[in-house]
Amino acid sequence: MAIREIVLEPNEVLHQVAEEVKEITPAIRKLLTDMADTMYDADGVGLAAPQVGILKRIIVIDVGDDNGLIEMINPEIIASEGEQFGPEGCLSIPGYRGDVRRANQVTVKGLNRKGKEITITGTELLARAFQHEIDHLNGILYTELAENYYEIPPEEEEQFEQEQEQQATNEKKE
Ligand SMILES: [Zn+2]
Question: How many CA atoms lie within 13 A of 72 on its CB side?
């Protein structure tokens, strides 16, 4: 288990476009593992490689649903549908939150760690996580999209996490 340091805003690396992965080397597979470790350690639901200082198109997501841990290389949104509006946070901007309008459902295509093409369709929290993490690969932070953006008191942070878990549980039931 290797936890990497999460890059915090302001940092130029968070505003740059990440490069496509051309070859899945052992270093890329190690990065995927470390990114998941780092995400779980920080209690996040997603992490993009630029957030650990690496400008490559790689994301990990786990919203606590049946998909479990999603590792995706060169992810691309190939379809999106509907709309949702709700709170979002970012591990690179601790202590803040903002309400962001997103597609309610997205279908994302990419490669897994074995180089096999995978396609995943997600709704609600998973769709939001995909859009948020893929934005990171394009140097876009949610704060640029948020309709309101505010500092959260530390005691509310815990409640926010519980709400996200609740949302993931509700999705499971649907
Ligand atoms: Zn983020």
Answer: 29
- Report residue 172 as tokens: 């499971």
Q: Are 84 and 108 in contact (CB under 8 A)?
A: no
Residue 58 CA to ligand 1 centre (angstroms): 13
Alpha carbon distances (Å) from 60 to 73, 85, 113: 9, 22, 11
What are the residue ranges of helices labelled H in 15-153? 26-41, 124-137
Centroid of ligand 1 to alpha carbon of 85 (angstroms): 17
Distance 88 CA to ligand 1 centre (A): 9
Catalytic site residue 156? no
What's the pLDDT score for residue 46?
98
Spell out, as residue ranges, where the chain has pLDDT lower than 50. Answer: none
CA distance 46 to 32: 12
* Model confidence pTM above 0.85: yes
Distance CA 70, CA 80 (A): 19
How far, in Å, is the centroid of ligand 1 from the Cα of 37? 16
Q: In what order do the strands lie in the sheet with 148-151?
A: 84-88, 96-102, 148-151
Catalytic residue among 133, 165, 171, 174: 133
CB 126 within 8 A of CB 49: no
